[in-house]
Amino acid sequence: MATTRYEHPSTAPMVLMLPDPASDRPGYWQRHWAATRMDCAVLDLGTSATPNRNSLVGRLDRAVHSADMPVVLVGHGLGALTIAWWASLMSGEDAPGIIAALLVSPTDPQEIDAAEIGPLPTSVLPFPALVAGSDDDPTLPIERAFSIARQWGAGFARFDGCGGFGPSDGVGFWPEGEELLDRFIDLVDDHAARTHLLSLPEWRLSAPNGGPALLRR
């Protein structure tokens, strides 16, 4: 359900969402969250058919450093990969305002035929992070998604039947993802989550029509 955190702006984080350009069309959950939640904003990553890593990282860096409140990053596809790229170039001191990141089906550079795209970052992210993957994602097998989460020192959320989390995959406005976001924000409020990234739990979530049950493994 939508958060009411915006009622306390002095402490509430801003949720900055980085869309996957291939999914950014009517019915996209990121646009719906931005339209219905006062704590959410969408960062324009452009529509280039040949994504440029430096351009994407630069857009995110400018947005982060212009924010006047704590930031939770939510990236999907190329947006999630952009967050990882940016974080790999920053130290913890360079991004003190980032309190967490939710990374949904991050794009695997191995699947992109573009000279501007570099290898997948392998360093541990300097903030609590959670990778979400689906058991039927056509471009990111669930085992690969889990491996990426481990490389980044992130927790892992497994969904069933969500494909690539785009409008054509049947997730709709993705209320289960919104619930996951709010629970994750609550989790990283705890000091243990901030200091023990690798201890973040794996979550298993139901398919879009199967209810919002959340189970710790």
From TrEMBL:
<dbReference type="InterPro" id="IPR029058">
    <property type="entry name" value="AB_hydrolase_fold"/>
</dbReference>
<dbReference type="Pfam" id="PF06821">
    <property type="entry name" value="Ser_hydrolase"/>
</dbReference>
<protein>
    <recommendedName>
        <fullName>Alpha/beta hydrolase</fullName>
    </recommendedName>
</protein>
<dbReference type="GO" id="GO:0016787">
    <property type="term" value="F:hydrolase activity"/>
</dbReference>
<dbReference type="InterPro" id="IPR010662">
    <property type="entry name" value="RBBP9/YdeN"/>
</dbReference>
